[in-house]
Write a structure and sequence with these properties.
The structure holds 2 protein chains of 2 kinds. By secondary structure, chain A is an alpha/beta fold. Chain A contains 7 helices and 7 strands. Chain B has 2 domains: about 240 residues, 3-Layer(aba) Sandwich (Rossmann fold), CATH 3.40.50.300; about 100 residues, no CATH class. The chains are: A alpha/beta, B alpha/beta.
C-alpha cells in the first residue's frame, strides 16, 4: 500500500509507503489553526542510518527574487510544520488521532532526528549551496534549541530530490 | 581510532593573548585536534599563528641537547626573529596601557610571559610549568619555500638579516634533513601516498646542484622553479613526514592552506590532515577560504569532532565550533551575497 502522490509546485512527490507520509498542509489539525499560520507541504518518515527521522518538506516552483523575504517565508512554513507535527505526535490535537499515521505517533521525539527539506524546481545546482547556507542561518535557532544535527537543513532541486527518492521520476526517465 | 600517550587529547589546550600587536582579548579554549582561524585581511590571523609558534618553539628549543639559553632568552630571540621588529617591545599593541601578555596551556600546563613596550631583549615575566618538548612543530607559510630554499638559508645563516622570518628559516632547515627509509607511522605512510597521489610525483633535493627537483611517477625530473606553486606546498608536507621532522606530537600551523590550491586539492589535503590529526598531530590553520571552512565543517560532522574556530569580527574575536554548524561570518555571507548578485543580474 502506498499513499497518494502529492502534486506541488510542478513536481510529483511520492507516492510513499503507507503510513510514512502525513500531508500536513491538507490535514484536519492544520485546518483548525490555519489562520495566520503558514504551513509546509508534508511530513515524511524515513529510517536513516542514524535512526528514525522526520522530514519536513516544503516545495517551491521558482528561485527567489527577494532572498530575505523568500527565506523568511520558508523558515516560517518549515518551523510551523515542525511544531504542528510534534504537537500532533504528542496528541495535543484531537483531530490528529485518526489522521496521523502510527509511524509518526510512535516516533521517539527524544532520540528521533529531523530534516528540513526545501525542494525548488528548476534551480541550478550551483545555486543550491548558497540557498542552503541562507536557510541554514535562518533555521539556526530551531536547530540549536532542539539540539538537532547542524546538517538538518537541505535545499534540493528536482534532480537531487528524485535521486533521494523524494519525488517521482519524470515520465520517460529511468529510475 | 589510535590514541597517543595523550589519550587523544590535543597538545595545546588554551591560548590567551592581550595587547599582542593587532591581537587583544583573544581567549581561545577547549582547543581541538584541528583548529581554524578566520577573518579578513589584516585581522591578525597570521600574527596569531606566529604568536603560538614562538611559544611552542621556545619549549622545543629549551633544554634540547646542549642548549644553554634560558627559556626567556630563547623566547626573546624567537620573538625578535619571527616578528622582526627593531625591539620586541614594538610588539605591544599601539596605545595599550598594559603590557603584552601571552598564555599558552600545553598538555594542561602553563607557559606564559609578559613584557612592556620599552623591552628590547629582556622578557620581564615568564612562567613556565610546561615540560620541554622533544617533538618539532612547524609553520607552513602561505607561500612555498622550495624555490627560495638556498636564499633563505644564506640570508639567515651568512648575512643574518631581516627578510625571511623564523617560520621560513626553520622550515628551510627542516627541509634540509634527508628523507629516511624504513619504519614510519602507518598513517604517515598513507598520508604520503595520498599526498604523492595529489602531486603526481615527489620532490627531491639534488645535492650536486643544491636545487630541488620535481620527479614525476615516470622519473621525469623538472626544476622546482617550473613546478606549480600548489605542488610545492603539498610537497613540503610530504617531505617533512618523510624525513621524520614531524612526529605524532608535532603541532602544525598552516597559513592559508588554500593558497595556490585547486578546490579539489584543498579537500584532499584536508582529508589527509584529518588522518594525521587522528593519529595525534595538532593543526592550526588560518584561512579565508569558503572551501576550507566547508570541508572542515563536513569533517567535524563525519567524525563527530570538535573543530574550534575563532573569527575576527570588527570588535572582538568570537569562538565557535564547526561541530555545531557553519559559523556566521563574512565568508559564508559572501557566498549568499554572490548568489543574490547573480539573481539580480539575471532578472534585471
Amino acid at each position: 500500500m502506498t499513499t497518494q502522490a502529492i502534486f506541488e509546485s510542478g513536481m510529483t512527490f511520492g507516492p510513499y509507503l503507507e503510513g510514512q507520509c502525513f500531508h500536513i498542509e491538507k490535514s484536519n489539525c492544520y485546518s483548525r489553526v490555519q489562520s495566520g499560520v503558514q504551513m509546509a507541504e508534508f511530513l515524511l518518515f524515513r529510517q536513516q542510518q542514524k535512526g528514525a527521522t522526520m522530514w519536513i518538506v516544503e516545495a517551491k516552483s521558482s528561485c527567489p527574487r527577494d532572498l530575505a523575504a523568500y527565506i523568511n517565508d520558508i523558515r516560517s512554513k518549515l518551523t510551523n510544520a515542525f511544531m504542528l507535527g510534534v504537537a500532533a505526535c504528542l496528541g495535543r490535537h484531537p483531530q490528529a488521532k485518526d489522521e496521523l499515521p502510527d509511524t509518526f505517533k510512535n516516533l521517539n521525539l527524544t532520540t528521533g532526528s529531523f530534516r528540513f527539506v526545501l525542494v525548488i524546481k528548476g534551480v541550478p545546482e550551483y545555486h543550491l549551496e548558497a540557498l542552503q547556507n541562507a536557510l541554514g542561518v535562518a533555521m539556526k535557532s530551531v536547530i540549536k534549541t532542539w539540539a538537532m544535527l547542524p546538517t538538518s537543513v537541505m535545499v534540493l532541486n528536482e534532480v537531487s530530490a528524485e535521486k533521494h527518492g523524494l519525488i517521482a521520476p519524470a515520465a520517460g526517465t529511468s529510475t | 581510532m589510535v590514541y597517543t600517550e595523550r589519550d587523544g587529547q590535543p597538545m595545546i589546550n588554551q591560548i590567551k593573548l592581550e595587547n599582542f600587536g593587532p591581537l587583544s582579548g583573544v581567549n581561545w579554549s577547549e582547543l581541538g585536534k584541528i583548529n581554524l582561524i578566520i577573518g579578513g585581511n589584516g585581522s591578525g590571523k597570521t600574527f596569531l599563528l606566529k604568536a603560538i609558534y614562538c611559544s611552542l618553539r621556545t619549549l622545543e628549543d629549551y633544554k634540547r641537547g646542549n642548549e644553554q639559553r634560558t627559556a626567556s632568552e630563547i623566547l626573546a630571540d624567537r620573538l625578535y626573529w619571527t616578528f622582526q621588529a627593531e625591539k620586541i617591545g614594538d610588539l605591544v599593541s599601539k596605545g595599550a596601557d598594559a603590557p603584552l601578555s601571552s598564555t599558552l596551556t600545553i598538555d594542561k600546563k602553563l607557559f606564559s610571559y609578559s613584557f612592556g613596550k620599552d623591552t628590547s631583549k629582556q622578557i620581564s615575566t615568564l612562567e613556565n610549568r610546561a615540560s620541554p618538548r622533544a617533538s618539532n612543530s612547524v609553520f607552513l607559510p602561505a607561500k612555498e619555500v622550495l624555490s627560495l630554499h638556498q636564499i633563505i638559508l644564506k640570508s639567515r645563516e651568512q648575512d643574518k638579516v631581516f627578510g625571511f622570518d623564523d617560520t621560513y628559516y626553520d622550515l628551510a632547515k627542516a627541509l634540509r634533513i634527508a628523507t629516511s627509509k624504513g619504519n614510519n607511522y602507518k598513517e604517515f605512510v598513507q598520508s604520503r601516498k595520498d599526498l604523492e597521489g595529489i602531486l603526481g610525483g615527489i620532490i627531491e633535493y639534488d645535492e650536486a646542484s643544491g636545487r630541488w627537483l620535481f620527479v614525476t611517477k615516470g622519473r621525469h625530473k623538472f626544476p622546482i622553479g617550473v613546478t606549480a606553486e600548489g605542488i610545492k606546498k603539498i610537497a613540503i608536507l610530504d617531505t617533512l613526514l618523510g624525513n621524520r621532522y614531524l612526529d605524532v606530537n608535532s603541532v602544525v600551523l598552516i597559513d592559508e592552506p588554500e593558497s595556490a590550491l585547486h578546490p579539489t586539492a584543498i579537500s584532499q589535503l584536508l582529508d589527509i590532515i584529518a588522518m594525521l590529526a587522528d593519529r595525534g598531530m595538532q593543526f592550526f590553520m588560518a584561512s579565508h577560504s569558503y572551501f576550507v571552512v566547508k570541508k572542515l565543517y563536513l569533517i567535524a560532522q563525519e567524525r563527530g569532532w570538535s573543530i574550534p574556530v575563532i573569527s575576527a569580527t570588527d570588535s572582538a574575536w568570537v569562538c565557535d565550533d564547526l561541530k555545531n554548524g557553519m559559523p556566521e561570518n563574512p565568508i559564508i555571507r559572501e557566498s549568499i551575497h554572490l548568489y543574490q548578485q547573480e539573481v539580480e543580474l539575471a532578472l534585471k
